[in-house]
């Protein structure tokens, strides 16, 4: 793999910038925080996505979109990897991924893009979108912090990390999986072995089921023999029953005939009774008709007068209606007059109450308005006394300014005095013979005295000025305090003046209200006089009183007609109370049906004679049929006996069939249980065979497979450890400056440093020595990972701050070491300008404001 170019848009401190990469050793040099590491993060992001990085860490602050585009060459083929970021609702995520292959751009989601990138780079490692590429991190680019973390890890954790880097973690995973299978097999074998006890129990149950089968078959044979005997007897009884049922049919027909004759007799008796009842009824009706004829003669004259009165009252009803309507109209008008009178009286009372209320309010306002004149005079006096307050405030402000000026002057004088005293104290501490800090000449005794007198005079003069400044400040403060007191007095008078002015405003408003009340009082008096005038002599209701007079005249004309109406109505009501109309009409209706009832009575007497003849004939035939039925009824008892015998035999038949059915069902259930037991027996026998097979597999895993894997992993790690140690020792020896300081890698891949035969703590090493150790470890790891990863053909190496703490001599050795690594393209990021001698190409990273730029080589 070889990088060709990188374009960054809104990535950390970069806005829109492109970088062209070259073969050989390239140095990206710049101050700390200038944006060097952002380039390395952008390269890894373009290849593998965010991994364990945060999108917010990469996207430039304040921007909503950003992205990277990386051009590279893999196995002599060109590719372009592009990824973009977007910020939505405060969260940053990938939203566009693509790869350009052979000039064709293909878009992917984040996971599929990483899968395709691993295929192109031929990195055979598990796909995990949320983590970085292990091969890339250990074979191409390992951040310095991560390498120091690996060096300082506990041995077991370090081995686990290096297993992933070397691609041999499969051994450890295989051992764990094999042990898990072994433990699972042991549990399964124990479960399968329980079949031994199950087989014993199943054999006992099968013997018991066989005994039950023989017993059930015996029951079926015996029950079938008994069933055959019963069925023969049933056939014989059925033949006899059929013979007797023929005789029973004749008897039933005879019984039916007798029943019909009895019904006919009952019907004739019923008809005879109905005819007799009707005859009694018609006799009574004829007697009632004779009584009705007598009643009609008695009521005829009264009924005639009743009809005449009803016709006369119909002509008088309109007069009665008019009379009632006029009475109602008169009462309605009188009610309205009373209502209007009450309304006028209420309004008069309301106006009188309002007049009293206005009088009360006017008296109250007149008292308040009298205060306006004295308050106006007080206000004018206070305005005159406070007219110069603004001038006093200006004088007070000027006095305050003079106080502040005096204070500032006093502070400056005190500072100058302190400065002079400090200068003299420093000269005094130097003493005679030292260099004068003022004139840079040697302090002779004579010169020392001259300087001493000069400083004392200057300090005395400053003390005099300070005293004068204090007196001046005190005078200004006294004047300011006096002015402040006078201003306070006038402020109090202004407050009183403001209260008086507010009260005057209120009183003036009340004076206007008094004028309005005077007008309102006059209007109310006029309104009261108007209401009194209307109430005197009911003058408000002149028209309505005239209407009442007209109505009284009409009522006088209608009075005779109304009196006649009431007389007739009383007579009609008396006839109605006696119910004369109903009584007369009912009696006449009854009397009119006399001939009808006489004819019906004659016909009923003929019908009665005919029914008596039919009843005699029916009684004679019934006597003959009863005699015949008595002679033949013994066949019923014979049939009852035969049917009872048939029922008993059928019950026996059912019992034997039930025994056979139950025994047959029992046999079927016994067979099913026996078959199930036989299947269970075969299954448990198979379990024992399976347990023996699994025991062999478990022993093989425990004794052969797992130890073999552990031995292979140990041998592989030992080989890698030896080569790793050789590379580490060589580069650590080349980098370190102290000849007696030696380093090597122990069996746990822990870096050990010795001096004079004694082991040193890594933490006790200097910064440059720690960096040398980490870099040697880093380069050795890079070579080993490339060797063990057969698919890894990268000729690219990226180093992040590899020389932190190096001396100048160590920096000069870097060229030889990097040549020894044998990579076609090496990219270094560092703030060490001395590395420029090591690099073939220099890229200067600069940051101005909040924006980074890269200045490439010419």
Topology:
Blueprint lengths: L1 E10 L2 E7 L3 E6 L6 H13 L6 H4 L6 E10 L2 E12 L2 E11 L2 E5 L1 H12 L12 H6 L4 H9 L2 H12 L2 H25 L1 H175 L2 H14 L3 H42 L14 H91 L6 H37 L1 H12 L2 H39 L1 H102 L5 E5 L5 E5 L2 E3 L6 H22 L7 E5 L7 H14 L3 E6 L10 E8 L2 E5 L3
Parallel strand pairs: 3-12, 3-13, 11-12
Antiparallel strand pairs: 1-2, 1-4, 4-5, 5-6, 6-7, 8-9, 9-10, 13-14
Helix pairs in contact: 5-16, 7-15, 8-11, 8-12, 8-13, 8-14, 8-15, 9-11, 10-11, 15-16
Keywords:
858 residues; alpha+beta; Rossmann fold; Helix Hairpins; flat
Describe the structure.
- The structure is a single chain.
- The mean pLDDT is 83.
- This protein has helices at residues 36-48, 55-58, 110-121, 134-139, 144-152, 155-166, 169-193, 195-369, 372-385, 389-430, 445-535, 542-578, 580-591, 594-632, 634-735, 767-788, 808-821; strands spanning 2-11, 14-20, 24-29, 65-74, 77-88, 91-101, 104-108, 741-745, 751-755, 758-760, 796-800, 825-830, 841-848, 851-855.
- The chain is built from 17 helices and 14 strands.
- Among the domains are: 1-140 and 845-858, Rossmann fold (3-Layer(aba) Sandwich); 372-492, Helix Hairpins.
- It has 858 residues and is of the alpha+beta class.
- The strands form three sheets. The protein has a six-stranded antiparallel β-sheet.
- The relative contact order is 0.13.
């Amino acid at each position: 793999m070889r990088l060709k170019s990188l374009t960054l848009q809104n990535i950390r401190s970069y806005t829109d910038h492109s970088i062209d990469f070259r073969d050989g050793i390239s140095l990206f040099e710049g101050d700390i925080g200038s944006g060097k590491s952002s380039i390395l993060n952008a390269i890894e992001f373009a290849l593998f996505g965010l991994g364990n990085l945060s999108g917010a860490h990469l996207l430039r602050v304040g921007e909503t979109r950003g992205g990277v585009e990386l051009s590279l060459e893999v196995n002599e083929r060109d590719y372009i990897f592009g990824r973009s970021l977007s910020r939505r609702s405060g969260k940053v995520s990938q939203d566009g991924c693509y790869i350009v292959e052979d000039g064709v751009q293909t878009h992917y989601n984040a996971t599929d893009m990483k899968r395709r990138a691993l295929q192109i780079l031929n990195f055979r490692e598990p796909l995990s979108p949320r983590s970085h590429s292990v091969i890339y991190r250990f074979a191409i680019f390992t951040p310095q912090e991560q390498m120091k973390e690996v060096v300082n890890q506990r041995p077991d954790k370090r081995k686990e990390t290096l297993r992933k880097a070397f691609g041999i973690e499969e051994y450890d995973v295989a051992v764990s999986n094999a042990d898990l299978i072994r433990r699972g097999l042991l549990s399964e074998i124990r479960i399968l072995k329980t079949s031994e006890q199950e087989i014993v129990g199943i054999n006992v149950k099968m013997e018991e089921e066989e005994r039950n089968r023989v017993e059930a078959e015996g029951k079926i044979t015996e029950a079938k023999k008994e069933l055959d005997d019963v069925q023969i007897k049933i056939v014989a009884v059925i033949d006899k029953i059929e013979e007797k049922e023929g005789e029973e049919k004749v008897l039933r027909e005879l019984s039916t005939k007798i029943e019909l004759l009895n019904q006919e007799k009952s019907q004739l008796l019923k008809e005879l009774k109905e005819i007799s009842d009707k005859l009694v009824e018609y006799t009574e009706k004829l007697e009632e008709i004779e009584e009705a004829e007598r009643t009609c003669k008695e009521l005829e004259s009264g009924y005639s007068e009743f009809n005449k009165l009803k016709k006369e009252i119909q002509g008088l009803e309109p007069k009665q209606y008019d009379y009632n309507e006029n009475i109602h109209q008169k009462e309605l008008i009188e009610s309205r007059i009373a209502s209007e009178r009450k309304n006028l009286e209420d309004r008069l009372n309301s106006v009188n109450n309002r007049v009293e209320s206005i009088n009360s309010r006017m008296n109250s306002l007149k008292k308040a308005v009298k205060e306006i004149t004295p308050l106006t005079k007080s206000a004018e006096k206070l305005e005159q006394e406070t007219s110069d307050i603004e001038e006093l405030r200006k004088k007070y402000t000027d006095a305050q300014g003079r106080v502040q000026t005096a204070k500032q002057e006093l502070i400056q004088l005190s500072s100058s005095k302190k400065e002079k005293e400090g200068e003299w104290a420093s000269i005094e501490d130097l003493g005679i013979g030292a260099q004068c800090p003022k004139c840079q000449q040697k302090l002779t005794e004579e010169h020392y005295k001259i300087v001493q007198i000069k400083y004392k005079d200057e300090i005395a003069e400053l003390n005099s000025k300070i005293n004068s400044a204090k007196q001046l400040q005190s005078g200004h403060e006294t004047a300011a305090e006096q002015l402040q007191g006078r201003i306070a007095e006038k402020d109090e008078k202004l407050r009183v003046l403001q209260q008086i002015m507010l009260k005057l405003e209120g009183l003036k408003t009340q004076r206007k209200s008094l004028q309005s009340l005077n007008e309102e009082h006059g209007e109310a008096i006029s309104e009261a006089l108007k209401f009194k005038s209307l109430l005197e002599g009911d003058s408000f209701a002149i028209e309505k009183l005239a209407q009442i007079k007209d109505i009284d005249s009409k009522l006088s004309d209608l009075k005779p007609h109304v009196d006649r109406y009431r007389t007739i109505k009383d007579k009609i009501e008396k006839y109605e109370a006696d119910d004369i109309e109903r009584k007369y009409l009912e009696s006449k209706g009854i009397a009119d049906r006399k001939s009808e009832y006489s004819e019906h009575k004659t016909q009923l007497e003929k019908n009665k004679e005919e029914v008596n003849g039919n009843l005699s004939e029916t009684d004679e035939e019934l006597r003959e049929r009863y005699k015949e039925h008595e002679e033949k009824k013994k066949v019923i008892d014979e049939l009852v006996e035969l049917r009872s015998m048939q029922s008993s035999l059928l019950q026996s038949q059912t019992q034997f069939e039930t025994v056979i059915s139950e025994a047959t069902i029992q046999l079927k259930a016994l067979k099913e249980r026996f078959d199930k037991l036989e299947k269970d027996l075969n299954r448990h026998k198979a379990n024992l065979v399976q347990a023996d097979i699994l025991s062999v597999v478990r022993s093989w895993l425990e004794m052969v497979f797992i130890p073999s894997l552990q031995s292979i992993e140990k041998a592989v790690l030992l080989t890698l450890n030896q080569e790793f140690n050789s590379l580490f020792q060589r580069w650590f020896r080349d980098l370190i400056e102290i000849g007696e300081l030696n380093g090597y890698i122990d069996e746990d891949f822990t870096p050990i440093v010795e001096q004079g035969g004694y082991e040193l703590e890594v933490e006790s090493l200097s910064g440059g020595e720690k960096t040398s150790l980490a870099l040697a470890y880093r380069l050795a790891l890079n070579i080993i990972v490339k060797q063990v990863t057969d698919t890894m053909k990268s000729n690219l190496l990226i180093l992040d701050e590899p020389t932190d703490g190096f001396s100048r001599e160590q920096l000069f050795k870097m060229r030889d070491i990097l040549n020894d690594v044998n990579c076609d393209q090496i990219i270094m990021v560092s703030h060490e300008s001395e590395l420029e001698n090591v690099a073939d190409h220099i890229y200067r990273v600069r940051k101005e404001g909040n924006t980074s730029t890269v200045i490439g080589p010419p």
